[in-house]
C-alpha cells in the first residue's frame, strides 16, 4: 500500500485524494479523540489508508453523495451519523434517488456505476443529527453547523480546540457552487456562503480540489470568488435571454454551468434545476419576465 499524502493539525489528520481530492475522489478527515476516533465522510482515498480509517469508531457525514460513501463498506460496525435532512439518502437507494432527483432510467444506470466505482451500499442503520449537534471526544469536541444548499442536510463540522472546519462540498473550486439536485437550494446556498466566515475556525478543509486552507485571507478571497460565480451565472443567463425569448428546454441545451455539448447521466436534469432556480430569483427581482407562459425574456 503506497503512502497517501497527509497533514495533521493536532488530533486532526487530512488524507489527500488524487488531484487534491478532485471528483470522483475526495479528501479524508480523521479525528483521533481521547475517547473516540472519528471519520468525516469516506471518499475513495479512504480505501487506501488502512488502519488509519478502519480504526474509526464513528462516522459523521457532512452530507450524503456517492463519492462521500465510498469507504463505508470498510466500517460496517461503526455508527454513521447524518444530518436529518440527508438521512433518507443515506438509509436507502430510494431515498438517495429522491434527494438527487434521478429518473427511472438514470437511477438504474447510476446504481450500477456507483456500486462499481464507489463501493456504494446504503446504511439503513444511519442515525440522524440536527443543527448544533456535538460529539464529545474526551479532550475536545465536534460541532455540526447546518449549511444547506448543496444538499438539504449539508453541514460544516468543526473540531475544537484545533479550530479545524471540514466545509465539505463548499469546495471553493473554479466551477462554483453546485445546487443541481432535487434537494438542493440556491437560496439556502447563498445564505450558507454568507454565514461561513462566522464559524470560528483557523483551518478550513474542503472535500475536493482546494484541500486545506490555513490562511484566513486566502480562504476569504477564494470564498469571495466562489460566491461571485452565482452573480456570473445570473449575468450569463440574462445574456442568453437578451432579445430572444427562450424556453427552459432551450436554455438547458445551451448550458449554464457545464460546457456546451457536455453530457452525463444527470447533466440535463442538473442544468434544468439550476437554471430554474436562477430564473425564479430573476423573475422575482424583475430582471426576467415571461413573454408567455414558459417563454422567458430578459426584462
Layout of strands and helices, then pairs:
Elements: E1 6-9, E2 12-15, H1 18-21, E3 28-32, E4 37-40, H2 51-54, E5 58-60, E6 80-83, H3 87-91, H4 93-100, H5 104-118, E7 127-129, E8 134-136, E9 141-146, E10 155-160, E11 164-168, H6 186-195, E12 203-206, E13 212-213, H7 216-240, H8 248-254, H9 267-284, E14 288-292, E15 295-298
Parallel strand pairs: 4-5, 5-6, 6-7, 11-12
Antiparallel strand pairs: 1-2, 2-3, 3-4, 8-9, 9-10, 10-11, 12-13, 14-15
Task: Walk me through the structure.
This protein is α/β, with parallel strands linked by helices and 299 residues long. Helices cover 32% and strands 21% of the residues. It is built from nine helices and 15 strands. The strands form three sheets. The protein has a seven-stranded mixed sheet, with no helix packed on it. Strands 8-9-10-11-12-13 form a six-stranded mixed sheet. Helix 8 crosses helix 9. The longest helix is centred in the last third of the chain and has 25 residues. The N and C termini lie far apart (59 Å). The model has no long low-confidence stretch (mean pLDDT 97).
Amino acid at each position: 500500500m503506497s503512502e497517501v499524502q497527509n497533514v495533521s493539525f493536532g488530533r486532526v489528520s487530512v488524507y489527500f485524494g488524487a488531484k487534491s481530492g478532485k471528483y470522483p475522489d475526495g479528501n479524508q478527515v480523521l479525528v483521533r479523540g481521547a475517547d473516540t476516533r472519528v471519520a468525516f465522510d469516506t471518499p475513495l482515498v479512504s480505501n487506501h489508508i488502512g488502519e488509519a480509517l478502519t480504526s474509526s469508531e464513528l462516522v459523521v457525514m457532512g452530507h450524503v453523495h456517492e463519492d462521500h460513501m465510498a469507504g463505508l463498506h470498510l466500517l460496517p460496525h461503526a455508527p454513521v451519523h447524518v444530518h436529518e435532512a440527508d438521512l433518507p439518502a443515506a438509509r436507502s437507494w430510494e431515498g438517495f434517488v429522491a434527494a438527487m432527483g434521478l429518473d427511472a432510467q438514470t437511477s438504474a444506470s447510476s446504481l450500477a456505476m456507483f456500486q462499481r466505482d464507489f463501493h456504494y451500499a446504503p446504511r439503513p442503520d444511519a442515525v440522524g443529527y440536527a443543527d448544533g449537534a456535538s460529539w464529545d471526544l474526551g479532550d475536545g469536541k465536534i460541532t455540526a453547523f447546518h449549511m444547506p444548499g448543496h444538499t438539504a442536510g449539508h453541514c460544516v463540522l468543526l473540531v475544537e480546540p484545533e479550530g479545524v472546519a471540514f466545509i465539505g462540498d463548499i469546495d471553493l473550486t473554479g466551477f462554483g457552487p453546485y445546487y443541481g439536485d432535487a434537494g438542493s437550494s440556491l437560496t439556502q446556498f447563498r445564505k450558507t456562503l454568507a454565514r461561513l466566515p462566522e464559524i470560528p475556525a483557523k483551518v478550513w478543509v474542503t472535500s475536493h480540489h482546494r484541500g486545506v486552507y490555513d490562511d484566513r485571507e486566502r480562504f476569504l478571497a477564494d470564498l469571495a470568488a466562489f460566491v461571485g460565480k452565482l452573480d456570473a451565472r445570473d449575468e450569463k443567463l440574462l445574456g442568453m435571454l437578451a432579445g430572444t425569448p427562450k424556453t427552459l428546454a432551450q436554455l438547458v441545451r445551451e448550458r449554464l454551468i457545464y460546457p456546451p455539448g457536455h453530457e452525463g447521466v444527470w447533466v440535463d436534469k442538473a442544468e434544468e434545476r439550476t437554471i430554474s432556480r436562477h430564473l425564479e430569483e430573476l423573475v422575482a427581482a424583475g430582471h426576467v419576465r415571461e413573454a408567455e407562459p414558459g417563454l422567458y425574456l430578459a426584462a
